Amino acid sequence: MKKILSVVGARPNFMKIAPIAKELKNYKNIEHLIVHTGQHYDSKMSDAFFNDLEIPTPDFFLGVGSGSHAEQTANIMIKFEKVLLETKPDLVLVVGDVNSTLACSITAIKLGIKVAHVESGLRSYDNEMPEEINRLVTDAISNYYFITEKSGLENLINENKNKSKLYLVGNTMIDTLVSNLDKALSFNYLSIIEENLIIKKELLELDEFVLVTLHRPSNVDEKEQLTMLFKFLSDYSNKYKFIVPIHPRTFSNLKKYNLIEELDLENNKNIYLLEPLSYLRFLNLMANSLFVVTDSGGIQEETTYLKKTCITLRTTTERPITTEIGSNILVSPTKENIYNLFNKDINSLITNPQIPELWDGKASERICKIINKLI
Ligand code: UD1
């Protein structure tokens, strides 16, 4: 019996591991264990995803919680090492680019345990993003590379990785989207919005809305940038209705800088702040929105699959396929750029968007087949 140990820690990890966990159940020769580091711990940031995606309860919960990057990474490493010594897996599977990905891949490699990285090779070439450091380090030491788009393959080849260890397999997050879309669409979007409002408001004729998510440190940590972004929503709220599910980091900064009062968000009838949403509810709103505004990584890919226009408020993207052939528009988030763009007809900017190669709902099948041969 072979043993694989998969790591999840933060919200974007859950939808990447879910279809792999499901697929691995078909392999009777493989025991699959799941470790949750507890990087995200609020029920709305974690449990809600386990429920929606029917991910098995983790075998180990490390409960590390928040902290500085060094504290969080170090705590995960100390606790994960104990799990590895106890379980002695044949392979550790890490996904994405969060601190848990970095911490667990370093810990495993140093114990001589092989590491496979799912969603490897993505590069923003911006070392100020914590995720870029996590991607670079994880890929520097991984043994096997599962890749979502051709830029990832090119980047890893340019970094002189052994070509026989590189596998362009598609996108497991899209597997999750494909298998959950019908279920997600069975909800009523108005009920989702109503049930998750942070500030209770009447929903006046909400037939069209723009879905907004902002959580990246470069957009929400400094007062000036966060104020500019929410002032922009306020300025354009006579043209659009904005639905804004709020990440805990963003919400605590909105309160810290007193922006809810300053911008009178409580009384703005066209800006609705929501609690973080579960996977299915968020997918529903994405599919039903007029278009999406975000600084997330994964949402650029999900909107590309849905062929929904996505305005990404960042200077770079590590997922260039979404702007090259998909429905993503990258906008460096200065006031001038954003206001200029929003004075145009947004939904006429993208014509004939395409879904990237191998984003077909079968990436996990391919990954598990390969892993079964490797271990
Ligand atoms: C992390 C990932 C980021 C990913 C994002 C998705 C890293 C470096 N960043 O960023 O790539 O896009 O998750 O959400 O790994 N908090 C809570 N409850 C929680 C989790 C966090 O209140 O369940 C608050 C805490 O105040 C914490 C802050 O959010 O300090 C940030 O959490 P953290 O895990 O450090 O990073 P994210 O910004 O969530």
Describe the structure.
The chain has 375 residues and is an alpha/beta fold. The protein folds into two domains: 2-178 and 359-374, Glycogen Phosphorylase B (Rossmann fold), CATH 3.40.50.2000; 181-349, Rossmann fold. Helices cover 45% and strands 15% of the residues. The protein has 17 helices and 13 strands. The chain has helices spanning 11-24, 47-53, 69-87, 99-110, 130-141, 150-158, 172-185, 189-195, 217-220, 223-235, 248-256, 259-262, 279-288, 298-306, 321-324, 335-342, 363-374; strands at 2-8, 30-36, 60-61, 91-95, 114-118, 144-147, 166-168, 210-213, 242-245, 271-274, 291-294, 310-313, 328-331. Strands 3-2-1-4-5-6-7 form a seven-stranded parallel sheet, with helices on both faces. A six-stranded parallel sheet has the order 10-9-8-11-12-13, with helices on both faces. Helix 2 (47-53) links the parallel strand 2 and strand 3. Helix 1 (11-24) crosses helix 7 (172-185) and helix 3 crosses helix 4 (99-110). The longest helix has 19 residues, at 69-87. It is globular. The termini are close together. The structure holds uridine-diphosphate-N-acetylglucosamine (UD1).
